[in-house]
Amino acid sequence: LIDLLVVAVVGIAGILAGAAGAQAIMRARGDEADGRAELLLAAPLHRSAWLLGYVLVGLVSAAAVALAAGLGAGLSFLGTEPDRFWSSLGAGVAQLPAAFAFVAVTALVFAVLPRATIPAGWALVAVGAFIGQFGALVQLPDAVRGISPYAHTPQLPGPDPDWGPALVVVAVSVALVALSVLALRRRQLTA
């Protein structure tokens, strides 16, 4: 029962981590719309480095939220059940691939459809969270549930976590960031 509580609490923190990461990319859109991006890119700063800077901030933000949740859950057990510390921290780590996926998808939306970045970014996080948290409860088909990165998160704490799907999510996220960089290099800045 305690493991289920940790999974639920850290799962919600994983959604917040995805939102924090996506928000960093949305900030890039705000800078572009307000004209600050033009000023930065007029200097010897390449568009790729500019976007990758926001991606890095998104990844660090997402990691901070997920790891803080895992650490907080783990610290709550130190006095009574110290072995649960590492499994709770691992639950926070398990949220990282899904959170990173939202950074990558939002970056791709920003690079391809900049004006849709903010509404699409929030919509993607909301839909992914709903499917990941409630997809099984409302009996969505497995194919639909598989759309959410949270459906591929290893269940930690728990026996025999399967990290394979999470590693696939990471690989897809890396590919999406690479596509984002290529797409941003080919488009004009928009207000």
Can you put this structure into words, describing what you see?
The chain is mostly helical. 75% of the residues lie in helices and 0% in strands. It is built from eight helices and no strands. The protein has helices spanning 2-33, 36-42, 47-77, 84-94, 96-112, 117-134, 142-145, 164-186. The radius of gyration is 18 Å and the shape is elongated. The termini are far apart. The mean pLDDT is 87.
Question: Which key phrases capture this entry?
Answer:
191 residues; mainly alpha; 8 helices; elongated
> Shape, please?
elongated
If you compute it from the alpha carbons, what radius of gyration comes out, rounded to the nearest whole angstrom?
Answer: 18 Å
Spatial gap, N to C terminus: 51 Å
Strand content: under 5%
Summarize the structure.
The chain has about 190 residues and is mostly helical.
Task: Give the secondary structure arrangement, pairings included.
Elements: H1 2-33, H2 36-42, H3 47-77, H4 84-94, H5 96-112, H6 117-134, H7 142-145, H8 164-186
